[in-house]
Amino acid sequence: MRLLLDTHVLLWWWCCPRLLTARVRERLENPSQAVVVSVASLWELSETEQRAELPELSSVIWQLPELVLQEGFALLPIQPRHGLLAGQWRARGPGRASQSRLRPIDHTGRLLLAQAQLENLTLVSADTTLQHTGVRCLW
User: Can you tell me the mean pLDDT for 59-84?
Assistant: First the structure.
């Protein structure tokens, strides 16, 4: 099983791994576990840094791709088909209107869901809205 990290999972792995579940930490600590980080997460972190929500990122923002690779994780580029499927996602899946009280999924979340589905990845996320979409998730 190849893992795709949600943006917050990558941050927590780096700065406060105790926020991750034991199951997730165990997977990420396993050197034979294939782990992928989407370029969309780098975009989200860059936007977060620009809004001054995470000023700690300012000193390393341009090194994020190298830091991801140093962890032994792979970077997943955004492909046209990822963007097209992400545009079809609603709160409960591609093309389905929201049928619950789940909050809407943001652009990055929809892109990560599309990448996980199309690339046969397991999305690692604490976000319960993403966990209820039918895409394989781990938390």
Answer: 96
Three-state DSSP string of 87-104? CCEECCEECCCCCCCCCC
- Longest CA–CA separation in the chain, Å: 42
pLDDT at 86: 94
Determine whether 62 is exposed, middle or buried from the number of CB atoms within 10 Å of its CB (0-12, 13-18, 19+): exposed
Distance (Å) of CA 80 to CA 83, 87, 101, 115, 132: 5, 11, 30, 11, 25
Are 72 and 31 contacting, i.e. CB atoms less than 8 angstroms apart? Answer: yes
Reported in sequence order, the residue ranges of 7-131 that DSSP labels E, i.e. its strands, are 35-38, 74-76, 89-90, 93-94, 122-124
- Could you read off the pLDDT of 94-133 as tens digits, one per residue? 555 444 445 678 999 999 999 999 999 999 999 999 998 9
Assess whether pLDDT exceeds 90 at residue 56.
no
| pTM higher than 0.70 | yes
Sign of CA dihedral 93, 119, 67, 47: negative
Q: What is the pLDDT of residue 59?
A: 84
Q: How many CA atoms lie within 13 A of 30 on its CB side?
A: 13
